[in-house]
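User: Modeling request: complex.
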Amino acid sequence: MKKEKYDVVVVGAGPAGSITAKTAAERGLDVLLIERNAEIGVPVKCAEAVSKEIERFVEVDSGWVCAEVKGTISYAPDGTKVILSVEGAEEAGYVLERKLFDKFLAQEAARAGAEVLVKTQAYGVVQEEGYVKGVYARNAGGDFCIYANVVVGADGVESKVGRWGGIDTTLRLADVASCAQFLMCDIEFNRDYCELFFDYDTAPRGYAWVFPKGEHCANVGVGIGGDVSGEKHRAYDYLNAFVKDKFPNGKILAEMYGAVPLSGPVYETVANGLILVGDAARHVNPITGGGILEAMQGGEIAGDVIAKAVRENSFSKKRLQEYEKRWRKEFGKVLEVGLKTKNIVLNLSRQDLNKFFHSLAGGIRIKEFSERALLKEMIKKNPRMLFSLVRIMF
Ligand SMILES: Cc1cc2nc3c(=O)[nH]c(=O)nc-3n(C[C@H](O)[C@H](O)[C@H](O)COP(=O)(O)OP(=O)(O)OC[C@H]3O[C@@H](n4cnc5c(N)ncnc54)[C@H](O)[C@@H]3O)c2cc1C
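Assistant: Request completed. Predicted assembly structure:
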């Protein structure tokens, strides 16, 4: 650490933190990005799929892309298949190598001028006169305090920065998906599509997935509602049952466990001297569980707003609320509709879930691969069931 005071300290070097740091550094700010793990991007806690919308934020590099996919295939409990693809496009998305992708983003932040410290964990925020003014952190060199005009909580699903700064980030068990995933080889899988399996017996209040990671391997996972997880019926147990049934002879190369916040965004994402981005702000689409793109988009907005705040030397909650307004305008509605749709879909009986899939059967072709376009199409095909959502979305 070269200084004791920065314009901005970002806690957590996932996609949200790295993009915030990069954007702020590009605008000339003194930025420190800290990461508790020894290696950025490791351990991976992700199924690693994103739509082509990612091209809005970064130039895609074959170094961190494992597979290009044409879309998704979702299966109902009765096996009804819904193919989702993009009109006029061969490919609709990518499966990433997150351990390389996250490093690439942190490297971009560093190249823009941000200082990066790994193996450095924040354990509290400095508060003075009602403002967050820095973080307490520790690393191999001991405990220390870093001052900053703005602290960014980009510390993921387990975020503590928000709570330390007075923002309520509580997650109910029912609002968390508990996940387990194996990286598997020696299995037969669809190399062109990400496949999703919806069935209460396979994955209660969630779904199972098989995402291709190149020619030979796939991410095979299960996410279940946190409130239905328990002894002998954890995500891990459901995953073992799924794998035994589908890929009895497959080999497991890696195991991963993690949680996804499906609550919809926290009520407030800013406080005096403090901004929350990515999973820390619960910026994950509750219907898909995807949060990489929201983390990047929120990070870009946060970096830009912080740069303006520094120019104006104003770090009040009121000033930082520009961030809140902008992310709500960009993707707030999609998260809101995603939450309502999740609540409807999760409460369908098996029979109604099958009916829901029948209404979509034959496939959905959307004009662009965005969550907004997908939800719009689902609503169009289910006017009765989803009528109430239309007013919120448009
Ligand atoms: C099983 C699973 C599957 C998923 N699949 C997908 C998918 O296919 N597509 C998709 O879009 N999304 C997916 N997600 C969600 C996606 O991984 C997250 O939305 C995304 O990583 C959010 O980025 P982030 O930067 O906010 O948080 P993270 O990527 O979690 O990064 C937070 C960082 O903060 C660090 N940190 C935490 N506390 C501290 C501290 N006190 N001090 C310093 N550093 C700290 C952590 O070590 C971590 O590196 C999945 C999640 C899970 C768990």
